Amino acid sequence: MGKLWQRSLDDDNQPRLQQVDLSGLRISRPSVFFLTGFFTYDNTPQNIHSALSTMEKMMARRPGKQPPVDVYAWSHSGLKEVFNLAAYNAVPNHRSSHNGYDVARGIIMPLVADNFKMGADGEPAGTPLPLEDARRNLRNVTFFGYSAGTITAQETYNAALKMMKKIGYSEKDAKTALGEVVLVGAAVMSRPGRERDRFTTLYMEANNDRLVKIKNRLWAPLRAMFAWCAHRLKVEPLSDRSVLISAAVQKRGFKTEDTGDKTLQEKFNALVRKRFPIKSYHELPRYVTEDEHLSSFARIVQYGLTNAVNRNGPVTPLDLLEPPKGVPAPEAHSFREKIAKARLHPKRVY
Q: For the chain, which has fewer Cβ within 10 Å, the N-terminal or C-terminal residue?
């Protein structure tokens, strides 16, 4: 069973991991939940620390004066959970593993139901909140899914939808409420084409990310065939709630960071060992970087998450791709130009 974690400072001012009791969790202000990738397990505290550190730094670098945000990370019980990927992708409209149910029970359901609990028979119980109250509560929930974590996010949606219907929500109202949750997905291992009207979602796939390519060859072969040679950034609306962003990432294994008075170079670890002859290009820094020379995805995650945690009402995926308030005018202008040049018209569905 996966676990939810948070960090606090100990007596020596050092970060300390704390497991979060899902049964007692109540979200009352903007919160980011990092649904982690393949190799962040319950028994790998260093990887959990790293995941939380990544999100904490990103939230700390939000432009301007920003309100506090709670940051959490989800870990997996073990490598066996890789099988959830294939199981979900085979039946994406219905499938949810224990992870999806655990996240939905702990995070989503207390925000949409009074006195929510699981009965002795394993069935959910509670009183549905008025729709507008549920929508307002769910605006405090932002998921950042990376790799296998994008599967966890979609399983959470499926599980929450089923439980909301069981306690009395109509399917229409449940879907409307869940649309208030924002998901920013990187190195997507789920099936965006089958998930168009769920959470408000940014999907990011590198065309030369080998794990994403294998997944698309299995489940979206036509898109995989046309994407292999594409390099430029593309922003393709899939629906009113979802946008697919694709580009090729650079093959180098370091990123540059401008600190104001100097430029620093920082190496990042490859997903597979260096002596392995094939590189994956699936590493998280290729997606969350602010270095335009490493990836055309630069700043998209930063801006998307900033806009998500700052939202006070419904947002669209394209709203998430706006430079947040406080970004210097030249940077905001160049980012808007980048997105405008990359935008494609939505495909017609007959």
A: C
36-85 pLDDT per residue, tens? 998 899 999 999 999 999 999 999 988 877 788 999 999 998 877 778 88
Alpha-carbon span 331 to 75, nearest angstrom: 35
Query: Torsions phi, psi of 340, nearest 5?
Result: -60, -40
CB-CB contact of 305 with 290 (8 Å): no
Instruction: Please give the Cα distance from 86 to 151 (Å, whole number).
Output: 10
* Distance between CA atoms of residues 148 and 280, nearest Å: 15
Which residues, other chains included, contact 83 with Cβ-Cβ below 8 Å and sequence gap of 6+?
Answer: none
Mean pLDDT value of segment 259-288: 70
Question: How far apart are the C-alpha atoms of 102 and 81, rounded to whole Å?
Answer: 14
- Residues 171, 75: Cα–Cα separation, whole Å: 30
Distances (CA, A) of 157 to 91, 203, 349: 14, 15, 24
Q: Is the entire prediction scored with pTM above 0.70? A: yes
The answer for residues whose C-beta is within 8 angstroms of residue 265's C-beta and 6 or more apart is 254, 255, 256, 257
Single-letter amino acid, residue 158 = N
Q: CB count, 10 Å around CB of 312?
A: 8
| Dist. CA 192–CA 257, nearest whole Å | 31
Distances (CA, A) of 305 to 7, 161, 180, 227: 19, 24, 14, 26
